[in-house]
Amino acid sequence: MPAMFRPLEFAIGLRYTRAKRRNHFISFISLTSMLGIALGVTALITVLSVMNGFEKEVRGRILDMVSHLTVSSFDARLRGWSDVVMQVKEHPQVIDAAPYVEAQGMLIYGKKVNGTLIRGILPAMEPSVSNVADKMVQGQLTDLKPGAFEVILGRDLARILRVDVGDKVTMVTPSANVTPAGVAPRLKRFKVVGIFYVGMYEYDSTLAIIHLDDARRLFRMQDAVTGVRARLKDLFAAPQVRYELQQSELGTYWVRDWSSYHANWFRAVKIEKRMIFLLLLLIIAVAAFNIVSTLVMLVTDKESDIAILRTLGATPKSIMGIFMVQGTLIGVIGTILGIIGGISLSLNLDTVVPFIENLFGFRVLDPGIYYISELPSDLHWDDVWLISGVSFLFGVMSTLYPAWRASRTQPAEALRYE
Question: Would the pTM count as exceeding 0.85?
Fold first, then answer.
């Protein structure tokens, strides 16, 4: 059994911790060390929870417009899409699938011109693969009728063009018409029948949704589509589902999951979380150094006690265990206080932040500037256990040198001037 867990060493170490010391400065440093560890753990849990919340919020807004999984041909012309839909839906993780057409274009209204991502959908099937139907500000997806050449715009795109429901915009496609007068761009008038808002500027300012049949006619795709979009039961299983579909009969198609569409953004968030974890870990490290200084001074203060224990038969390992108990106890109490504070703050952030904003009269996230105006929080218990484990490890490691120094105390030298 390790020395610090033996009853005698634990009892003496605990007695030293509870006893009133002659040197109050040592007690003060012990308290600051404990509070430093608690502050570091609280800050780490809270900040990582906020970052997880932002990641979850942005991911949700991205997935409102981007499907969990897409299957398309490499030439962007998928023929026989109904068979592909059936094959995709055979996978146990797939809830539903639907075809789509996607291409670049421009929208013109008066003197306003804006580049646009044009997406053709089947209004009846789209709600099964995306949440855009729930994000409609004006109109409904079902307002799109085949052959009527109607369009639904993002809110910011409508503002850029200064159009509203009922206005007609001109859509310009990359393909061209060859006429006796020469090559002319392919134009088509569309009536605005709806406006959506998902809270992601990338989509709200560039996306125009039209009926699938109109998109195929506009881009001369005959009976082909760009691809098939699918929704999964578990969005985090998308990479595995993608791999399994690539190993099936769909291996000749281009299969992508949602994470590949914004891979750089998700990678950046992951790197930021790691860097913030390391930076905030320095708070715990500084507190651990305080434990080292506390125990070093305590060892000096207790030299005569150590010498007496050695003369009574205590081994160097026992002496190490006594002082390791003290340092570890400071680390454990600080970690527990930090865990309680971090979890409480993370779970009640929606109450704490408005209180602070009202108290000091400012907004943390101004809704006029940021699309996410509230601090989101998503507590991950894996983060809590990792932070707790690292904090406990720092507490134990900080006791090693002072405890070793205490074990090297020579009774004769320590009691010479007593």
Answer: no
